[in-house]
Write a structure and sequence with these properties.
Structural class: alpha/beta
Order of helices and strands: HEHEHEHHEHEHEHEHEHH
CATH architecture: 3-Layer(aba) Sandwich
Largest sheet: 8 strands, mixed
Strand content: 15-25%
Number of helices: 11
CATH class: Alpha Beta
CATH topology: Rossmann fold
Number of domains: 1
Amino acid sequence: MSSDVRFTDFKSDKQPTWCPGCGDFGTMNGMMKALAETGNNPDETFIVAGIGCSGKIGTYMHSYALHGVHGRALPVGIGVKLANQDLEVMVAGGDGDGYSIGAGHFIHAVRRNVDMTYVVMDNRIYGLTKGQFSPTSREDFETSTSPEGTHQQPVNPKALALSAGATFIAQTFSSDSQRHTELVKQAIEHDGFGFVNVYSPCVTFNDVDTYDYFRDAIVDLDEEDHDPGNFDQAKDKILDSEKEYIGVLYQDDDSVPYGERMGLEGSMADIPDGAPEDATDLVREFY
């Protein structure tokens, strides 16, 4: 790791095609700043994304990257981290990718506690496919596929994470650059699975959960008497449907990552002395 890296070193030469004003711009900038400020290098970082507006984020960032299939970013990220403990692995997704088709992977990624970071751009709508309701949309949210509301309670991803044994849960707002960067940094530095849900407004299809709405509704936990190490306090905040909290909701400082529990070190691509030639040839195929 190097302290000489700037966040612009994580920018690729590809221009994002998101709608002007999309919250994902701020989310990505905070991710790049957080990676740089925690001393990571692009050549020691791996970004994994699935499908949705967030899916091409690896194209816009300069690092190792994989653009996977819908809902499957987390198992890929886990595989990368377990194969090479020296890499900084960050998985990016959206509320559809992560909490709908990827919900099962989300729960098991949380409970395994692999030392990686998961950043979810939650705009409470399917933006890429033209504005259908998502798992986190409000019950009365009217869209082309729910003209009279969704008639479903929205998924609470923080509650899912807490019940699955999460060791770090945070929530941020993409428009609050400094606070967003700070919280992603804390997730990166956490020893275990760092989960960050980001309010990332869709300016094209969601005229309810807007920048103005979040600016008025957000409550920063730094201004509350909140102890993120207290499970019961975290549960109360997470289940409070009346407020939109940002900050670290829960953190287990005694967390032991999966790789450490399993005694994993270094990279599986490192060929040990005396390895059979057939095994050596197999590993070299994947270089």
